[in-house]
Specification:
Length: 365
């Protein structure tokens, strides 16, 4: 229980620290105020955990938080929002579980991130619904998180090609592995790139169609669209009179009304349509290839059993690093996540190696 409480406490500290970092670089002062408010909520949770667990001293930010902050400095702080959203549910569950166990009242601040933002909106009347939707739009944009995609893309390449390499090694005793490994790398990376291109392109075409239909609705049924917009604002906690006033102002400019309704009603972030399907495809190709090349590298310099052993060792190292990288999103122990990844990856390689061994014996016989 003590270790779990310490982990929960560290999560609260890290989340508050990262929200402060995001607030510090946010250009919009109203949105920055929301992030600072979120940081205060997380710090209050940390204080609660400390008080409920014998006054545990509040630690500083962990290596995970500091690493995410460095990622934010390099790639932009929007990348951090996806990782923070991943922790919100676990934080809420931990707080509610602790309170229920101690029969303490649940205040409502333990709920998910969207509800916290709505609560802040109700207490900070200066923050408009449109500004809040700007913030929510950022969250949706990074919900798929490019960092997570990078980690998983490398993992796919490593595990799939390691399994292929070990299967061929088992069947041939270590010969012909280089050709098979390079072929597997290229085939897998090209397949991933094509799949990513189709995914991005089809999504863009779908969004463009939905946006065109929304424009038609604005032209043909402006009153109905104004009512929908007012209801959306009211659902965010804005008073009915203010919501109708905001909807009236928004609908006065059809281009602006279309932009707002696309974001509010359809949940589409127009910035996503600006992404290049080719860029996504090339990124997917590269990420898969980075992972897939690791089990093949030793066969460029050797062959037979020594190369197989080096391939396994290099692959195991890569799997551990991938598992460690995943903890940036999950908050789990680096050693637990890293060795779990190694165990599963080597298990897959072991299965294909022995299947290859059986096939090789069968063919030889």
């Amino acid at each position: 229980m003590k270790n779990k409480s310490l982990a929960n406490l560290q999560t609260e500290i890290d989340t508050a620290w990262l929200y402060d970092k995001i607030a510090a670089q946010e250009d919009n002062p109203d949105v920055a105020a929301i992030f600072r408010g979120l940081a205060e909520i997380e710090r209050s949770h940390a204080l609660h955990f400390s008080q409920q667990n014998g006054g545990i001293a509040l630690p500083g930010p962990s290596w995970r938080a500091r690493t995410l902050n460095q990622v934010g400095k390099v790639f932009g702080y929007d990348y951090l929002l996806g990782a923070l959203l991943e922790t919100e549910k676990s934080i809420a569950n931990a707080v509610v579980t602790a309170k229920n166990k101690k029969q303490a009242p649940v205040s409502g601040t333990e709920t998910n991130h969207v509800k916290i933002l709505q609560s802040l909106l109700q207490t900070k009347s200066r923050v408009s619904g449109e500004k809040l939707s700007q913030l929510e739009g950022k969250h949706k944009t990074v919900g798929g998180n490019a960092l997570r995609a990078a980690v998983l893309g490398g993992n796919d390449g490593l595990v799939s090609n390691m399994s292929l390499v070990m299967g061929v090694a088992g069947a041939t005793g270590g010969s012909g592995v280089l050709l098979a490994g390079v072929a597997g790398l290229l085939a897998g990376a090209l397949s991933m790139a094509l799949g990513e291109w189709i995914s991005v392109k089809s999504s863009q075409e779908l969004y463009e169609r939905q946006m065109a239909l929304e424009q038609e609705e604005i032209e043909l049924h402006p009153e109905a669209e104004k009512k929908e917009l007012a209801l959306i604002y009211m659902a965010k906690g804005i008073s009915e009179a203010e919501a109708w006033k905001m909807a009236e102002t928004t609908m006065a400019d059809k281009a602006h009304a279309h932009e707002v309704l696309v974001k509010e009603e359809l949940g589409i972030n127009a910035e996503e349509l600006q992404g290049s399907a080719w860029e996504a495809a090339l990124a997917s190709f590269f990420l898969f290839a980075v992972g897939a090349v690791l089990p093949v590298l030793p066969f460029f310099f050797g062959s037979g059993t020594p190369a197989v052993i080096w391939s396994l060792a290099l692959s195991a190292l890569g799997l551990f690093l991938i598992g460690a990288a995943i903890t940036l999103f999950t908050g789990k122990s680096v050693w637990y996540s890293g060795f779990r990844q190694v165990l599963f990856g080597l298990a897959a390689a072991g299965v294909t190696f022995f299947i290859g061994k059986l096939i090789g014996v069968s063919i030889a016989g």
